[in-house]
Design brief:
A hairpin with a 2-residue loop joins strand 1 and strand 2. Helix content is about 55%, strand content about 10%. The protein is mainly alpha-helical. It is built from 3 helices and 2 strands. It has a two-stranded antiparallel sheet with strand order 1-2.
């Protein structure tokens, strides 16, 4: 089993990601980990469920983007075309 740093994804926090046996883990500073643990201990079960659902949605969006990007961005359009469609610019 080996650990190798991965390239950060665009927009991802500046943490190292390691991959071990098909699993991924994020390396964070100890104070940040302690802060997360404190937040978890103070959260209600409903808040934890909402956070899990949001994390699942985020992961699904990342995977969808990754697939779209690997498919060489089918249906991609220029910035000018996007502005025209979104804002009715000519």
């Amino acid at each position: 089993m080996t650990a190798q740093p991965a390239e950060p994804e665009q927009g991802a926090p500046p943490h190292d990601v390691i991959h071990l046996g098909g699993e991924s883990a994020v390396v964070v500073p100890t104070p940040e980990y302690q802060r997360i643990q404190a937040l978890i201990s103070l959260a209600t079960p409903e808040q934890l469920t909402e956070a899990d659902e949001a994390a699942d949605q985020f992961a699904a969006a990342q995977e969808s983007y990754r697939e779209w990007s690997e498919a060489e961005r089918p249906d991609a359009m220029s910035g000018a075309e996007a502005r025209r469609r979104l804002f009715g610019e000519t």
